[in-house]
Design a protein that fits this description.
Elements (H helix, E strand, L loop, with lengths): L5 E3 L8 E3 L1 H6 L5 H17 L9 H9 L1 H4 L4 H4 L7 H18 L10 H16 L4 H21 L4 H14 L6 H11 L2 H75 L2 H35 L5 H20 L4
Antiparallel strand pairs: 1-2
Helix pairs in contact: 6-8, 7-8, 7-9, 11-12, 11-13, 12-13
């Protein structure tokens, strides 16, 4: 079994060496376990010597990435590193995945930039390869899907409950059977028990996700109903206050008419006309303008606030009604 040749990584200790990525990808005889073992050995050596954490040679990594379509056309070598420690390997796999994923969307045109939208574009554009008969294209598409899902979920905030149905819809669209339940039933009879357990785990996950979604929907409906009830009550209260304002204005007009009659009667009294007429007019003007008008204006303004100041408007109206009642109870002088 061959072993990848090592170059010095970017560490502060010359004795710590990392394997070359080009050696891993360039030689089929280099097994993933041997490559990972050499990476871990380099990391442990750096830790033991208190050196900086080693990294893959930058130039070698860049050249490997540029030639990856040639070195790993189906991404099978990269998939064998998926989920493996240490973090240098995880970082490399994430970088390869990002580039391959973004390149797969290069010819797609869509305004949706969300993670879910990009993943949906990937599934739609790759569906023919994922489920096609061309073995090489199918293997690459399926491996890219295996790489992309954990990368998007862990690093790009894609939700599994959003991602898996997109894959399922692509599969459903290309399923010949019109009875999806029967098709799934036949599939379950064929799969090994470990796969069946994994399928059941996914089913349980979606059952919980559905229950959470239903609870959230019910809570939203309750909150909407409560808000509508509060809004209706507020509208009724505002309507009642507007009616009270109209009644107050009506009483004010009645008082103005009564004072006008009184003023007309006083005009007939020649001996008091010069004095009483001025006094009554001043009294009426003072009462209407100085006392009632500000209160009514304040009540109207209170209802125009957002939210309406109902208590303030009601207080002003009570003051208007009380003032009018007292004025009406005064004996004519």
């Amino acid at each position: 079994m061959g072993h990848p040749r090592s170059d010095q990584g970017h560490t502060s200790n010359a004795s710590v060496k990392m394997p070359r990525l080009s050696s891993y990808y360039g030689s089929p005889t280099v097994q993933p376990l041997a490559f990972l073992r050499e990476v871990r050995t380099a990391v442990k050596a750096a830790r033991a010597s208190k050196a900086d954490p080693p990294s893959f040679d930058v130039r070698d990594a860049e050249e490997t990435l540029e030639r990856l379509a040639e070195l790993d056309p189906t991404l099978v070598r990269t998939v064998k590193l998926l989920g493996k420690d240490p973090h240098q390997v995880r970082h490399w796999v994430a970088r390869v995945t990002r580039d391959a994923f973004e390149n797969s969307l290069a010819d797609c045109s869509c305004d949706e930039d969300s993670t879910q939208g990009r993943f949906e574009r990937f599934i739609v554009s790759s569906a023919d390869d994922l489920l096609g008969t061309d073995k090489r294209r199918r293997e690459r598409a399926q491996n890219l899907l295996r790489l992309s899902l954990p990368w998007l979920v862990e690093l790009q905030n894609l939700k599994l409950e959003e991602a898996l149905p997109l894959v399922g819809r692509a599969k459903r669209a290309r399923t010949k059977s019109t009875d999806l339940r029967r098709a799934i039933g036949r599939l379950l009879f064929r799969v090994p028990v470990p796969q069946l357990m994994n399928i059941s785990l996914v089913s349980a996950f979606f059952e919980e996700a559905l229950a959470d979604a239903l609870d959230a929907r019910q809570n939203a409906l309750w909150e909407l109903s409560r808000s509508r009830d509060e809004q209706a009550a507020r509208i009724r209260e505002i309507s009642e206050l507007r009616n009270e304002i109209e009644r107050a204005v009506k009483k004010r007009n009645e008082l103005a008419e009564r004072m006008a009659v009184t003023e007309a009667q006083l005009k007939g009294q020649k001996e008091l006309r010069a004095i009483d007429r001025v006094q009554i007019r001043g009294r009426a003007r003072s009462f209407l303008i100085d006392r009632l008008a500000p209160l009514i204006s304040d009540a109207r303004d209170a209802l125009e606030f957002d939210p309406p100041q109902i208590d303030g408007a009601r207080q002003r109206l009570d003051m208007v009604i009380s003032a009018i009642a007292k004025e009406l109870d005064k004996p004519d002088e």
